[in-house]
Amino acid sequence: MGGLQKKKYERGSVTNYITRNKARKKLRLSLPDFRRLCILKGIYPHEPKHKKKVNKGSTAPRTFYLIKDIRFLLHEPIVGKFRDYKVFVRKLKKAYGKTEWSAVERLRENKPTYKLDHIIKERYPSFIDALRDIDDALCMCFLFSTFARTGKCHVQTIQLCRRLTVEWMNYVVAARALRKVFISIKGIYYQAEVMGQLITWLVPYQFSHDHPTDVDYRVMATFTELYTTLLGFINFRLYHSLNLLYPPKKLSALSASLARMVSSAEEEEAQLDQFPVEGEDMEKLEAREREQKEQEAQKKLFDGLKFFLNREVPRESLAFVIRCFGGEVSWDKSVCIGSTYEVTEETITHHIVDRPNASTQYINRYYIQPQWVYDCINAKIVLPVEDYFLGVTLPPHLSPFVEEKEGDYMPPEKVKIMALQRGEKPEQEDEEEEDEDEDEEEEEDDNDDEEEDEEEDEEESEEKNLKKMEKQRSQGKSLQVKVTPGKMKVENPERLEQEEKAEEKRLAIMMMKKKEKYLYDKIMFGKKRKIREANKLTAKRKAHDDAEKANKKKTRK
Amino acid sequence: MAAARRLKRVVASQPGFLNFKSSSESLSGRRKRVNKNKKKSWNKHSDINDVEEFLEDVRLQERTTGGLLAEKSDDSLFFLDVGQPKRAERKAAEPIEGKKRKGKTPRPLRIDLILQQDSLIPAPKDVLAYQQPNAKKLRRISQKAEQLAAKGVVTRRQKRLLSRRPVTKEAKKSDTEANNNPNRDYYDIWGQEQSTVKDSAEDWYLQQTGKKRVKRPEKLSDRPSVLPAVEVIAPGGSYNPDFFSHQALLKEAHEVEVKKQKEEDKLERQLAVNKDDTATEETVIREQVEGLVEEEEEEDEEEAAHDEEDEDAEGGSSLAKKKTERQRKREKADKIKELRRLDSKRQMDHRQQLFQLRSIKASIKQQEQSTEDKQKIRKANQEAEKSQPRRLGKLKFQAQDLEVQLSDELAGSLRQLKPEGSVLKDRFKSLQKRNLIEPRERAKFKRRHKLKYVEKRAFRAIT
Description:
heterodimer; A: alpha/beta; four-stranded parallel beta sheet; B: 19 helices; about 55% helix; BRCT_dom (chain A)
């Protein structure tokens, strides 16, 4: 037994990992300092594949870091600053203890500080990398800006966060980058498109604050430190991309006059790039063009409209969102600085109120609830105002982040909105009309059926047809395309085309091999199931609505 | 003393007051001769009440009416009563006296009214308040200064005052250079000209020190998790949700609760004690008596055991004989036969396998299929694990509760909305979920030295 025997745990994956305490000792830092350093530099613990090997035979849960990462940390100049800070704290305590106040003053003035610019440059070498990570940064900054300015975390951090978030919102307004808004019970989700990147962030409500006790504030503060630096640099770059001055002046209440800025932005985006990519079909090109046109149309959604916000509506959110789409906004002077016009302006087109009854005084303006604004943005068109009058039960606020596929259940409100988008006239789907006889009710129900069928027809006609055909084929009958009279009345010429297509499809099915047929049946079964479920849900919804109608009649009578 | 004497005098002058000395002295009529030259004796023996009364009366008149009544004009003291006054006058009088005042000035406080001066004679001026000790000197100095200023002469003192610079309080260096200074500057960190400059800087560094800058390891730029930074809540979490999506969200929350309940039940079941298993007196006695009672049964068992042992013993003796040669030869032949048999069998198998090709193929295919399936499942599991939070420390990741509002908590309007959940906690959990930090709980308060409890002497005496 010589000395050249292989010892256990000396090679392989063990040599790649190091425990947290060992790493800390190597860097000669205290645990909170080590944690802060890891967060700032972006070094995360790893879970090794074979824990037992790495942990030298034991399965105790430990935190492991890669040795290469820790060695990289050794070259970081901030580590020296941390050590200086520790020494500073020690000296300060001594001076306090000896009540040498001049020494305390002197030490305080020369407190060691550090900057994180080089870390940002190292972690995000290009601007696009930084943009990809901005979601997190925005959420944190918005969160911290809503904190109360007590001494729990540095007041300067809160002020800096506030400044950065206002700058960001100003940029989004100037670039008209906002695409989706969703009001949830947690907070308000926004999605914007900046330089091709889709950025989602969450803004909490101003008035909700129960500080949970199991959140580590130091960790959050460290993250915020990093993210404020990152966001500041990104803001700078974004402002320069729009040829705006940074830092912008007079941003206290998003009241900067954006006319000049907006026009410059429009000039830049006026050129539609028509580069045909090789190998792309005409269809795709057309689709892109259509999308761009839609986006352009969406950006001018509220152009020319003038809004006035009442005291009880969330002013910041609405002001931001309305300005993003070209509208003008103002509020009562006593609420906050920066209001441009008063209640008494004649040219106000929409007055946003959230109370059950308003003191309606002015005739040529609509009094609506705030959900109208958000729903318009999500639907990308100006919705009819009737559903959002004061005292009316609002339609549900649908999430724009949900992509419904074919055959999935779509709530009737969404279907209505899509119809409006396509330009069809608004249907008479009022379920709360006052004068109704029972006959009219039945007629309306039929109408509803027809309309729903019409709307869903284009999407589900083929599936429905196929479903019928399969059923009939399985029963061995000859195929007869049977159409209900309601449909026949409205869509005769389209029907023939669809019949032809259905015939072709049927032939193709007949010619399939057994195996392929088997797969096809499986797919169709899955699809049919979805459709059946969707129909079931619509039936349920109808039943629910009918029950509500009946209830309302009962209470009225 | 004078006051006491005066009091005595007043008392004595009351009618019907009997004095000790008076009855005896009034008869004699002879009064003792008093000298009133000194203040003390004059005060004792003279009666100034009438003068005092008169003066008090005069003062009262002046206080209440502002002058002697005799000197006032008739009109100020008397008026001619002509009957009921006119309505207009009444109206003018009422608002001031009435309890409700419609004007904007509030009624004065009672305490203020009490403390006001109600005498018509103004209080005398307090001269001491206007006295300044150095008034003349100061006046002289200021006049001189004015004269000099008029001439344009600047004194030495003034010159020195003016030449002193004003105190400008500079912002602390630590505050301006700190990372979270609210007014800090940002610059273009991704500027284009940096690349060339950086190269030359690096060359210079290499030339001077012979070292290269440390590069950031590439693996650090990988994201630790595939999850997105912000996960939008399901459509049922809208403040005014659609019926079905809200039900779906409620169902999810319900399932989580059901799971928790099931686990609790499982634990309870495991810990539950079956009532039948508890020891009753019967079973206790049986246990204690085991092995002691019922010897007949035991004897039968012993005999049976004995027989078996004998057989075994006989069998054992047969094995002790030696093997004969014949037996050895037979064994060898058997072995060879066996080998040959196996060989032929193998060859037969080989030949037969030709005919079994199809089934062999089928079985191979099946095996391949199963391995493929297993591989797929393993890969799917790996992918699923990537989106799971990894175990990075002592604590496991605890997902936060779904944020859901029950049907009766849903607010109809934005104004009545009560927010659910805390974004701070949500962000914290999201950081843990994406493997950026390890799950931690709040540090408990650990005592360095154990607490000692000592009874007080008095307490020990009682108990």
